[in-house]
Amino acid sequence: MDFQLTDDQRALKAGVRELLAARFGRERLRAAVDEGPRLDRALWRELGEAGFFALRLPEAEGGVGLGLPEAVLAFEEAGRVLLPGPLIATHLAAGVVDGAATGETVVTAVDGGGLVEWLAEADVVRGEATGAEPLRSVDPLTPLHRVPVSGGAGLADVRPMGSTGALPTAPLTSLFTAAEQLGTAARACETAVQHARTREQFGQPIGAFQAVKHLCAQMLVRVELARAAVYAAAVTADPVDIAAARLLADEAAVRGARDCLQVHGGMGFTWESDVHLCLKRAWTRTQRTGSATESEELLAADLVSGVGR
Amino acid sequence: MDLTYTPEEEEFRARLREWLAEVLPSLPPKPSPDDWPGRRAYDLGWQRMLYDAGYAGLHWPVDAGGRGATPTQHLIYLEETEKAGAPYVGANFVGLLHAGPTIASEGTPAQRARWLPPVLRGEEVWCQGFSEPDAGSDLAALRTRAWRDGDDYVVSGSKIWTSHAEVADWCELLVRTDPAAPKHRGISWLAMPMDAPGITVRPLRTLAGSTEFAEVFLDEVRVPVTHRVGAENDGWRVTMVTLSYERGTAFVGEVVACRRVLGEVAREARKNGRWDDPALRRRLGGLNAEFRALWRLTQWNVSEAQRNGGVPGVGGSVFKLRYSHARQELYDAAAEVLGPEALDLGREWTLDRLSSLSYTIAAGTSQIQHNIVAERILGLPKGR
Questions:
Q1: CB contact under 8 A, A235 and B381
Q2: What's the domain range around B206?
Q3: Is residue A158 less than 8 Å (CB to CB) from chain B?
Q4: Which of A32, A173, A201, A215 is the one with CA 20 to 30 A from A155?
Q5: What is the tens place of the pLDDT at every residue in B326-371?
Q6: If you average pLDDT over every residue of chain A, what do you get?
Q7: Is A34 left (phi over 0), alpha (psi -120 to 50) or beta?
Q8: Residue A123 sits in the same domain as residue A194
Q9: What sequence ranges are listed for the domain Acyl-CoA dehydrogenase/oxidase C-terminal (chain A) (predicted)?
């Protein structure tokens, strides 16, 4: 047993972080918010060139030939910078939809929960999106459409993954969502700590007050527990492990963003602070397939199935 | 990231399983919780069986008489002994996990030769005299005094939360040898024989009704200077060295046990109909996520220790914060499943629910653990 990142995995994670820091740093994030939900096609192709979408596609099919753990590390970094776009759907379409692997084609999908992200901007939509109605999305960087319940054949029912894995798309979507939530949770924790170290009141950094300190510590505890669960689920690809990972990562991201907002005080309630972007994205992701209710029911069923260890 | 065990690790597991299956049926019946001499004999007997089979001091270094096992082997040992229902470390806890490793690391050759083999062979029991009525979370504020008088220290003061004091042979004792020095720099570590004159042990009854630990009063107890481990006034550092033995394995058996109990709670709910309540079902599902993740975090920490030769104590703080809370949540959920029967002390889960209340207090309260995480991992400033 060696449940730690390998040197290659560390390098890959650092590489993705570097690429995203250069191409989607804070200024770019704020500019994207100001511009409204427009997909940056150039960035999308760059991600394609870097292998983000073709990461798990076999080398024989022009992919990078890596596995779920590596994909999870990449999605964690995407979640950290709040990278917008239907990343998971396009990743899952690599090798199935022409041009998805290279980032030439932007693919979205009808989620099991009945929502479609980035419908107007995508080139291809997987699943039945007829009659989809736009919502005024709470997240400024995730445009949403709602599919009528009767017509909403979720992607879970559409097709299993191609040659790259045995799991159907629903648990994979949930796993990658968990990875994105993990990255956002880690960012929220770091942002809160940074603020608590520098913001002074009563003549000292507010991070010296235990009430603030303990909020920050709780954020880190949630991040680290979620990290262990998400990485393990990427290794085992077990649907019950994925449900556990998703539940903990959703919690780490949503509660982490909430606590981050609290640590920021009044500034956390402003548009100019980035904290609300973390929270709104985290909220948006919680609605994807494998939501808390679904995951908890799956985990409950596992307890009485007789196969749980 | 690899969660599979190597062939050597699987071999270790298989041999251990085989041995456990062979010896556990031959164990004597468990003594009652209030029978301290019986508990001592039972726990030492188990330790002797481990010693004879070559499993004693698994995680101790080889030159201290241990097996020098890897953190992963130690994890496997704790996982398998829990699953097989083997006895707990019990009265051997302080000897094997605190005093022994401290002596192994900081003791002289003579001290190691005197004190380590009896721990491994299951012949002597150690207890811990660290906390005091006025030195709990602020352990370094301890006031038990030791004066030099010839070749002896003369020790007066009182200790609290000392487990197994009634049946211990030795006490690892922290005393103040220099009251003028800053609080961390005037402390020494002594091995005190528990049969020395001047020691009074008063059992403390817990809220669960049992006497799991004691107060120990020291009235001019004479401890030979040769029983000091490490230099005079260097006791704080000597004590902290023990923490470097922390390899992420502290709660392995407990997490395994909690997962088993959670399964039993779910099956009980199915039996008595409460399973039909979706809120309860989801609560138990959430706990399944929690304990699965805690198991993965254990594997993560153990792997880190295996790579680096130890995990920093702060990694343990992250784990302990969440685990201690989860354990309490588990028994609260069990009580919801039991309904009125949760008030029956005849139910095992009722007693376990009561004892779970100590988890967010013992070995560093959750408040102190939050401070440790915030200051030592996140780098937030110290304050009040």
A1: no
A2: 126-233
A3: no
A4: A32
A5: 999 999 999 999 999 999 999 999 999 999 999 999 988 999 999 9
A6: 93
A7: alpha
A8: no
A9: 177-282
Q: By the 8 A CB rule, do A243 and A299 touch?
A: yes
Interatomic CA distance for residues A9 and B153, integer angstroms: 56
Percent of chain B with pLDDT over 70: 97
CB contacts < 8 A (A, B): 182
Q: Whole-angstrom Cα distance, residue A229 to residue B322?
A: 13
Q: Determine the angle formed by the axes of helices A275-286 and A239-263, rounding to 10 degrees.
A: 150
Q: pLDDT (tens digit, 9 = 90+) per residue, A78-123?
A: 999 999 999 999 999 999 999 999 999 999 999 988 999 999 999 9
Q: Do B1 and A69 touch (CB under 8 A)?
A: yes
Same domain, B218 and B270: no
Which of B74, B102, B121 terminates a domain? The answer is B121
Q: From the CA of B210, how many Å to the nearest CA of chain A? A: 32
**Do the domain assignments include residue A296?**
yes
Residue A54 is part of which domain span?
7-158
Considering the domain architecture, whether residues B293 and B355 belong to the same structural domain is answered as yes
- Give residue B247's region: left, alpha or beta (phi > 0; psi -120 to 50): alpha
Domain assignment of residue B238, yes or no: no
Mutate to test the interface with A, among B77, B288, B369 (most CBs of A within 10 A): B288
pLDDT tens figures, A136-195: 999 999 999 999 875 444 444 444 444 444 568 999 999 999 999 999 999 999 999 999
Q: Is A230 on the interface with B (CB under 8 A)?
A: no
Chain A residues 257-296 with CB within 8 Å of chain B: 292-293, 295-296
Domain count, chain B: 3
